[in-house]
Amino acid sequence: MSETLLKVHAVETYYGNIRALAGVDVEVKRGEIVSLIGANGAGKSTLMMTICGSPQARTGTITFDGQDITRLPTHEIARLRVAQSPEGRRIFPRMTVYENLQMGASLDKLKHFDEDVEKIYTLFPRLKERQAQRGGTLSGGEQQMLSIGRALMARPKLLLLDEPSLGLAPLIVKQIFDAIKVLNKEQGLTVFLVEQNAFAALKLSDRGYVMVNGRVTMSGSGKELLANPEVRAAYLEGGRH
Amino acid sequence: MATTTYSTENAAGNLTARALREGFYAGLVAFGLFFLFVGLETTQNIRNELVLNQRWGLLAIFVAVAAVGRFLGVLYLQPWIASRKAARAAVVDKAAPEGFFVRNFSKIAIVALVLMPPVVVSLVGVQGSLKWVDNFGIQILIYVMLAWGLNIVVGLAGLLDLGYVAFYAVGAYSYALLSQHFGFSFWVLLPLAGILAAFWGMILGFPVLRLKGDYLAIVTLAFGEIIRLVLINWTEVTRGTFGISSIPKASVFGIWSFDVGAANNFAKVFGLPMSSAYYKIFLFYVILALALLTAYVTIRLRRMPIGRAWEALREDEIACRSLGINTVTTKLTAFATGAMFGGFAGSFFAVRQGFVSPESFVFLESAIILAIVVLGGMGSLVGIAVAATVMVGGTELLREMTFLKAIFGPDFTPELYRMLIFGLAMVIVMVWKPRGFVGSREPTAFLHERKAVSGSFTKEGHG
Ligand SMILES: Nc1ncnc2c1ncn2[C@@H]1O[C@H](COP(=O)(O)OP(=O)(O)OP(=O)(O)O)[C@@H](O)[C@H]1O
Ligand SMILES: [Mg+2]
């Protein structure tokens, strides 16, 4: 549990002249669940996207599995088995659920597809019921499951999740977080998670980071952050589930 | 069907009677309305005198149209609309089983097309078949093929290309020039023209890689115009607006020729009377084969990773990249593949006309091809074929409607109204079927168990 899988070092990312990330350091070790919390517009999604190479970091380095990926194009980073369920889910609306999952497995040219799709269906039985339905017609929660399922089909070494609980009923949130936990425990999947739902995220995570205005201002184990008065005041009060 | 039931014979009889009655009244009203407007016309003759012309024939047509229209409307249209409303109101519990004809539409269509020339020849003779095989058959099939080719770019990959005619032109000029200067045969130059067009597809692809939607459309439009302007102005090679004429004919793989003087002339070898119809029939089969090749390749590619990547690209480019798909090569292959079929069609066009000039490759052609793709329902091969048949065949039919001269006078040239009717048809189809003839995308992964909730019944949303 000590080997570093992802290391983000002094990364600055710009949208034009606007600096969205102002020197971010984040580290994710193999087998960990790490969460990133922060207010709206703090730069969480930007960090996720920067790890995936679009937009690319202007300065700083990103290392994945010992390889510098700072300047790699997005699709090549994906080929190193960094899978993401991005903000807004981004499933393919006119394709069926089944086809969406196939797209997720396109890296391996569907070699392990039949085996993996069954695993996804065990994780999210709802997707199996809906496999012939078009992605765009799924409910929000189902789309979220599909987005995560599609990312998992790539057999990722690192799974990036951007607000998996966004707009979902508490029951579904629990279902999805349980699924993440199971994947982590049983398959040793490394997860880097952005969440607004700070309580649930920190409870689930080994470690967490707090981001404010494009900087990481605090980090620690999930328990520590949950107990921290500042964190409680900013992200947890009134938000207990 | 709760309120309107026309099942008993008595009701049916009543309906016919009512339709007859209403038709008669409609005719009467039309007669009253149009008697003075249409039946009589005043003109001035050379001596500036007012002359009263009587146009009873035209009046009769107006009255007949009103009467028959009302009659048919009452008898068929109204019950049909009522039953459709009732059907829509009723809960759709399962999709209606599709008939034999619908299920096997493409197979039936292919067989019909293969059999068409011999049937036409036996019906109207060798010389009479020219019109049907050439003006209708070949003309429609060229557009079917072009639209299928463009469909790869627009329908599958979602890249709006307004300059597709450029690749058609590249194919046509490749054949025209290379056959004249180097004497290569059609069968050698056909693949070469496709490759050259594909190459130009890549050339177009590079600068527009980062463009999307409207911007992409404008740049591709400009590209199409550039190619045309080059063809006009590069006179040493292309002879400008004069075009290139006496382009050699194609032969049956070098075995039989269609040149009149040749020893192995097709008609001579088989002891048939000389006629250009054989050549046209041969060309009909060539373009049929080329079009079917386009369809076959499209169907195969859609099930392969590259075809999937095209469709995914159309849906969400960012998601594509994050799944490890190289969107650059995906776009370029879409442009190149689409362009290649445009090039094939172009060299066929050159061999069919025997003459090419920049006139044939104006923006309007791109627009028509794109209109066919949109009308057919982006991505659906059958829908596009139907759209091409309706639009191109319809405008060809206009030429045949010489009887219209009887109504609108001898100066009336129906072809001039081609685009008007084309536009009208397009508006009607788009109102009636906003996503084209075949609007729903056919999944390429087939599951054994089909869910009751299929996509076609539900609205599409992006969430
Ligand atoms: N494409 C863009 N162009 C310009 N500015 C952008 C762009 N995307 C994000 N930003 C800006 O960068 C900052 C960080 O945005 P980001 O999406 O990373 O926030 P976030 O932490 O994910 O917020 P939320 O919790 O609301 O999703 C914001 O101020 C945002 O306005
Ligand atoms: Mg965000």
TrEMBL record, chain A:
Q: Which keywords accompany this UniProt record?
A: Amino-acid transport, ATP-binding, Nucleotide-binding, Transport
Q: Name one GO biological process term.
A: L-amino acid transport
Gene3D superfamilies attached to this UniProt entry: P-loop containing nucleotide triphosphate hydrolases
- InterPro entries on file: AAA+_ATPase, ABC_branched_ATPase_LivF/BraG, ABC_transporter-like_ATP-bd, ABC_transporter-like_CS, BCAA_Transport_ATP-bd_LivF, P-loop_NTPase
> Per the database record, which ranges form the ABC transporter domain?
6-238
Cite the CDD domains for this sequence: ABC_TM1139_LivF_branched
Q: Which GO terms describe its molecular function?
A: ATP binding; ATP hydrolysis activity; branched-chain amino acid transmembrane transporter activity
Protein family (similarity comment): Belongs to the ABC transporter superfamily.
Q: What is this protein called?
A: Branched-chain amino acid transport system ATP-binding protein
TrEMBL record, chain B:
Name the residues that span the membrane: 24-44, 56-77, 108-128, 140-170, 182-203, 215-234, 277-299, 332-355, 367-395, 416-432
Question: What region holds the High-affinity branched-chain amino acid transport system permease LivHM N-terminal domain?
Answer: 19-114
Q: How does it sit in the membrane?
A: Multi-pass membrane protein
Q: Where is this protein localized, as stated in its record?
A: Cell membrane
Superkingdom is: Bacteria
**One cellular-component annotation, GO:** plasma membrane
Name the keywords, alphabetized: Cell membrane, Membrane, Transmembrane, Transmembrane helix
* Protein name as it appears in the record: Branched-chain amino acid transport system permease protein
Q: Which NCBIfam families match?
A: PRK11301.1 (NF008450)
Predominant location category = membrane
InterPro entries linked? ABC_transp_permease, LivHM_N, LivM-like
Q: Which GO terms describe its molecular function?
A: branched-chain amino acid transmembrane transporter activity
